[in-house]
């Protein structure tokens, strides 16, 4: 309960001491949920940033913007990475920063060409850690086939940062004839997941909290532009691609369905959730559909082309576990539902914030 008014003045609420399963939607201050990629992130953009930007705001403010430059379609993206811990099983904030931006560009069907990288370093951070992160970043860029062409470095006072924050931006060229965007989703589209879901979020959580699940869960961080190129090369009619990072598969599907004004029907028995992730989520009370991924994609493909795309994905290292998880429907537009193992259905709603803060 709020404090009573004193001397006719309303008392100031101390929200930091409150315990609540989700951040208050009407909080006057930024809370962690605003960065979770869910409903609160969308509200922050829609009700604060876009009105503040005014006429300067252009496009749909998606993860990757498509702009035309001299008759050429270019996919452009920027992202910031603040993961904690900075080094985790399977990677670090360095390769995460490259792979995250590369994947955002690739989800438009583009092949990333160049990246910028900006470091914000906290005073007192060991140079050995920064070297490890920078080495991972360079190696990831080489693997993705991109060049690091410009950048910046800033240092903040000790206690005013958290080790290493990285921003990466980049662009790529969209091939002629490729048109991949949420608005192209169609009823009957087959929904494909490129592999096991929930791995990155659980890897970060287990490392951060010192939890052991009988095996070391390693992040799935990877650049997916090669997989996307393989899929496009089949000539299949690929309507939508999305990397389900913050907010997981649930957030990605809800955003697509809202944009396309269509629904999605999933089969829970078909969801590619590895046993160690399922066990960890069961123990911690998490839903794997809401847990972040950093090396997986979701594809909406014309049903007649689904088998062709799947076969091509299975040949690629990042798509060998690809599987069909559902279809696009006209019922319940803007909503995702899942058929349970018991034959019932449940709504897979857009998360308000995120289950696991600071995963990317």
Automatic annotation (TrEMBL):
<dbReference type="GO" id="GO:0051604">
    <property type="term" value="P:protein maturation"/>
</dbReference>
<dbReference type="InterPro" id="IPR011854">
    <property type="entry name" value="HypE"/>
</dbReference>
<dbReference type="InterPro" id="IPR010918">
    <property type="entry name" value="PurM-like_C_dom"/>
</dbReference>
<dbReference type="InterPro" id="IPR016188">
    <property type="entry name" value="PurM-like_N"/>
</dbReference>
<protein>
    <submittedName>
        <fullName>Hydrogenase expression/formation protein HypE</fullName>
    </submittedName>
</protein>
<feature type="domain" description="PurM-like C-terminal">
    <location>
        <begin position="186"/>
        <end position="332"/>
    </location>
</feature>
<dbReference type="InterPro" id="IPR036921">
    <property type="entry name" value="PurM-like_N_sf"/>
</dbReference>
<dbReference type="Pfam" id="PF00586">
    <property type="entry name" value="AIRS"/>
</dbReference>
<dbReference type="Pfam" id="PF02769">
    <property type="entry name" value="AIRS_C"/>
</dbReference>
<feature type="domain" description="PurM-like N-terminal">
    <location>
        <begin position="63"/>
        <end position="174"/>
    </location>
</feature>
<comment type="similarity">
    <text>Belongs to the HypE family.</text>
</comment>
<dbReference type="InterPro" id="IPR036676">
    <property type="entry name" value="PurM-like_C_sf"/>
</dbReference>
